[in-house]
Amino acid sequence: MNIDEMLDGRAPSAPHVLGRGFQPWLYAAAAFGMMAALFDPAIALAQADACPNKGGTLTFARSADVSGWYYQDNNPTIWAWPLVSLALVRNKVDASGLEGAAAESWEASPDSKTFTFHLRKDLKFSDGSPLTSADVVDSFNSSMNDAQNVQQGIWPKGTTIAGPDPSTVVITITDPQPAFVDNLLSQVGIYPKGSKPADLVTHPVSAGPFMLADWQKGQRAVLKRNPYFWNQPYPCVDEVDLAVVGDSATQALQLQAGQVDIAEELPPNQLEALRRSPGVTVPVFPTLGEELIRLQRTKQPAFQDENVRLAMNYAIDKNAIVNLVFFGTAVVEDSEMPRTKFYKAQTPYTYDLAKAKKLMAASAFPKGFKTSLLISSGDAVESGIATIVKDQLAAIGIDVAIQQVEAGTKFELRGKKDFEMFLATTSADQIDPQIFWYFCCAQGFNLGSAFTDYLSPDNQALFTKVQTEGDPAKRADLFAQMQKVVWDDAAQLYLVFLEAPMGIRSNIKGFVLPPSRHHYLEKVYKTP
Prior knowledge:
The protein is an alpha+beta fold.
């Protein structure tokens, strides 16, 4: 899951689009004809080979600040975290798998209970002190036992971590979990032994490509090049300034004026004009994001009726949302699973008002009912979607009241399950979808399937099997079955998969936005 959908929300002053689209899983390319127009990460990475230019400051306009530099409890924090922190492994930039970070290599035992990692030689923290297995063991034990840490709930019970020598880490779990490394270890940082989480929140010491030099919370973070970073000669730039610019229109203006080098949030209706602006490029990056409406079944009993849910899905014109709200930077959603590993397209709920009316007539609510849709105030994207949904559901007798609240309040209400419909922007942080599916659809984290109280015994049984299945083909088949079960249930209202247009000055080279939207900036450089 994307932790942002669990605990936090968007920057309240601007539409916050997690990302739009997908590229690496090319077996699915036929599902979206716009694939060829998407950004090719291989080209950008080739441009950045061995830092053709070094030095300078990269200014990156972001819609919201990090909440801290240790706990990953919202999207802005998750995405910036790899700039400073180093994990054992990380997602490849094209989301095709994992690659080594602190670990040069690793292997799993045949029973998927023991995982052995071999650290790179001569690793150092940003303060110059050596990084050894003792630091990994201490950092991981801290993560595993910290009730404030979101990752605590992902660590398997009975996990033991050992460092038999300074360059080897061995993790042992009691039950087989073939996806253990994929699901967790790219999100757990390594810090000097004895570090206190409370200190790391504001003064992190790790071994990422940059180190925090100054942080004016809510305004700007200044990151300096880490001279001890393991992958020399990177990073290419001397400094990265993460500037908080909450309004997307202001980001666009600052990009055009050259005040920022990268803008993460652009108004969809200004994209074409920005592409014509001198010195500005607007590549579209694939991501693992999606937009859907979550249905709270206990709060609104009508959502327990499958015919009602099916009718609502057929009554909403998703192409209208693609064109009128996202200006083409989205595609119609065809699975609750983001387009990541094991994604399998289902038959879309195409707009069919006549069919929707027949389904409503066959439901327990043939005359319709009243409900409400919870959205963030001041968010143009959410407001646009809500307006379309309200208008189109009225055609099948469902009277939707749009409930606009401040973003933080929206997520507080969602946490209490005090909503009927909730407009959610969500994505996967892991390439393997097991954790995402646990959150969204399998009653995970004691949240009742993303706060909706959705429960399918068939889905639960399949999910129990996939957790211990190590064969990739069998995992793929189990996930395909689960996607079909949930999709055929019309468990939620499915809208669009998202893509991420980014504003970048034309003298910035080597920038790639991974589908997970983590910031990998070590290979970015500036030309005159």
